[in-house]
Amino acid sequence: MLAVFFQEMIFRGTDAMAVLMEWAMARLVLHRDVQAKVHRELDEVVGRSSPAAESSLPALPYLQALIKEALRVHPPGPLLSWRHRAITDTYVDGHLVPAGTTAMVNQWAMSRDPEVWDAPLEFRPERFLAGGEAPDVSVLGADGRLVPFGSGRRSCPGKSLAMTTVTAWMATLLHEFEWAPAASSGVDLSEVLRLSCEMAAPLQVRVRPRRCST
């Protein structure tokens, strides 16, 4: 049990963040207009002459919306609550759930539900900004529409650290570089479920420095 605990803590704490960042970068490479908006926000808030700092993160709402949208469309953990199991036969909304059934939350399907999200297959960070459909949605478990870290007592204990870490890394990567598809390939958004829901084909990009290093 102790080995399983440490495996969960180490791998979930590193693998999921790396997977989320790869998905976010894939979307930025694919949607150059979104990348341009993040660059513009970083230039206005941080400035070309300064590196991105953690203290600047609260003033970067578009970057935060980008990460929320990446979590919505590409949740690293698409199935939540592996430990829940029905003890006895029970009915939920008229459907029989036999004893011994493992119950999981299909976050992948929830985030693509057209009854909840407008044009759910579109990648649109603006939905999380003022004037969008979900400007006040939190990804930390308080809103059932988007619960990539779970909710309640068994939600991910490292969710706040994960969001801060990913946002800081994305701010740095985007402030320092421009990202474009590799000349030999496009962006393949096919998925494969391993420890996390990963890109089936690793992302290949061309990178160009964009900030003067003075």
UniProtKB/TrEMBL annotation:
Keywords, ordered alphabetically: Heme, Iron, Membrane, Metal-binding, Monooxygenase, Oxidoreductase, Transmembrane, Transmembrane helix
Residues that hold heme according to the record: C156
UniProt superkingdom: Eukaryota
UniProt keyword annotation of Oxidoreductase present: yes
Cofactor: heme
Annotated GO MF terms: heme binding; iron ion binding; monooxygenase activity; oxidoreductase activity, acting on paired donors, with incorporation or reduction of molecular oxygen
PANTHER family from the UniProt entry: CYTOCHROME P450 78A7-RELATED, OS03G0134500 PROTEIN
Family label: Belongs to the cytochrome P450 family.
Name of this protein: Cytochrome P450
Naturally occurring in which organism (per UniProt): Triticum turgidum subsp. durum
